[in-house]
């Protein structure tokens, strides 16, 4: 680095015309002073453009100097009582620490984090005291995505506000008995407190971007006035390594989301060590965000540095600041002032001269910008008032600020949760916490009297901003009626003879009906990821338009067609492009609008099932945490339903994944009428009754005749299984065939073959949700276990099957694990055989794929016959005859291994 400094110094010394250089610089200073920075920027851009056009090589850089973006003379100082605010922050730091340390002294396995809030405390204090509005009658409130590991500090603030009791604080991470506090922001566990879950990391930034766009969507469509609301998202610099953190920043700029503020807490450390030990994370992020079109504000240095930078006439200090890597900066804050003098200022003799009159303590008190309330306030103010672009604040802080030798700026800071008595004493003294020595071992919480001036100030600040945050609305105030099932008569009726349609086409009819509904039509949010034409939904383009804040600035190439591509400022469709994570984030914003906006919205996110559930699995869990309400529609679902597409296009596992999320209600319907019954009941539960569930419904693109709804089967459809058709009552042998999705039809054909070729009757059962009947069985089993003296409860599927006879064969287009869920609830002594599509997908026709995965009608027949033979009802030779008859190759390799 000294060599680089020498080169820069030599370049300045070798200036062939220093007078001319000074004239240019003086001219630029005059422009800035008299006409402002915008004019100066314009002139510089014109000069750079001219130079490039004349052949000069001027490398592009989206970086600025490693100093604060806001010049000192333009800083707007914080108007609050900073003495009160500093004391309040100190008490919050103490109480956050006490909560975590007390929990881990009582139970060392509970965990918890102190250092993240320690570095964030100033930023959060400024936001809560001066910027962030709570929901009121005339303001929808700001939305906060808070850095997940800072939750102890948020609890500490709520404790001082009187929103949390000491008993709750003492039960941090002890939630089972119902009085504790969740480890991280979890709306599912604290439904009136946390707005959003922000752990897993990376999801907060991604969801916040689409949340900000959804606020614009609501406003453009006149559903809610969101014009004065902001979305603030806090994340760590290490978190920005998550692809989700940065993946949508281009969209945020493209959509002009000036209601979005991202604050990156650049404490230079993640769990294991430095984020960019050999580089500079702030400069890296600046280039990324500025290049994407964001308004970038860097808050790097505290006020003590201002005078030094003003003295830096030759730019030596700035050059050293730029060339010092983050690993060194981390080291400086873990040592002392003497170390900083020697190893930082000692990099150049003139820097040592600059600080010659400063003591080591003076040097140590040169803070980072994120710990100064005035610097933070000025940055927040600019972010709040910025128009036309999203804003990112890159704020430099110290990890574990105030933790002293136990963790401050050390690699262990993130995991530190068990401070010793000496570290606790140091923290008390550093932040002047009024706790006597004889009480320190107890680590008591500190809360002054309610009439203490600091406490009065705390409540007054929140009163001026409309109330306390974070807070969450568990129910919308409005009530919307849902249409009766009869509204979907066009898909409840059987199709005309010879007329075939798919469940995907049926769904399009259902959503078209809903869009015309006078009560719900404007609340439907169709969300698509560049597959509208695949699902036959392109007709919606012209009907309701695609949301775009700029409208349509071009004439679409297909304008002469009925279903042309129409973008509109008030469009209703959210078209996310090839972006499943973005589509899911938009869906989450709409599915939680009842809480965030007091407006019930009904999102239908339709995607390739293979590229949906497996890609957005983490977001689906976040949706469960957020108590989302809406419909996820997995199109072209099942391992064998999608002709010719191949290994990575064929879904045999999405229902297994969906089954893991407790408040997700998964359905795999076969027929149009089943889809209608499920959607209508979902509307009843989620809209009319405001129940915190969401639906995953798979759809097929395979066309076949639809039998229509048989009255009386609605309850069975919703519970997950019902008798579709009975076999010959006079037959001597009988089997039960269960199927779902497109493979149910193979079970129907198998029943016909069993009757025709072998005289065996088969009852056919449609199972729209094997997962729901499994959950019912588990619930009944648990109840019976803990009520041993009462009559046991029979699971729903047991009740259905115990009235039948013969082996039970379940076949789906998914892994065997899907249907194995209900094995435990079959009547005792009954054979239960499962066929499924384990293994990789591949390209071919549906007929060939079902033969390959051994789930076609012939394999179902063989499975039924083999089960009867195993029970001694028929001879095994009958099974062998069937294998020969249907041309099944018994030496064919197991598809799982292929």
TrEMBL record:
Q: Which reaction does it catalyse?
A: N(6)-[(R)-lipoyl]-L-lysyl-[protein] + pyruvate + H(+) = N(6)-[(R)-S(8)-acetyldihydrolipoyl]-L-lysyl-[protein] + CO2
Q: Name one Pfam family in it.
A: Transketolase_C_1
Q: Which domain of life is it from?
A: Bacteria
Cofactor(s) required, per the database record: thiamine diphosphate
Record's keyword terms, sorted = Oxidoreductase, Pyruvate, Thiamine pyrophosphate
SUPFAM superfamilies reported for this sequence: Thiamin diphosphate-binding fold (THDP-binding), TK C-terminal domain-like
Domain Transketolase N-terminal intervals: 147-300
List membrane-spanning regions: none
**Which residues belong to any copy of the Transketolase-like C-terminal domain?**
720-855
In terms of InterPro entries, this protein maps to: PDC_E1_N (IPR035807), PDH/Transketolase (IPR051157), PDH_E1 (IPR004660), PDH_E1_M (IPR041621), THDP-binding (IPR029061), Transketo_C/PFOR_II (IPR009014), Transketolase-like_C_2 (IPR055152), Transketolase_N (IPR005474)
MF annotations from Gene Ontology: pyruvate dehydrogenase (acetyl-transferring) activity
Enzyme Commission number(s):
1.2.4.1
General function of this protein: Component of the pyruvate dehydrogenase (PDH) complex, that catalyzes the overall conversion of pyruvate to acetyl-CoA and CO(2).
Looking up NCBIfam families in the UniProt record yields: aceE
PANTHER family linked: PYRUVATE DEHYDROGENASE E1 COMPONENT
- Its protein name is Pyruvate dehydrogenase E1 component
Organism annotation: Massilia mucilaginosa
- Lineage of the species this protein comes from: Bacteria, Pseudomonadati, Pseudomonadota, Betaproteobacteria, Burkholderiales
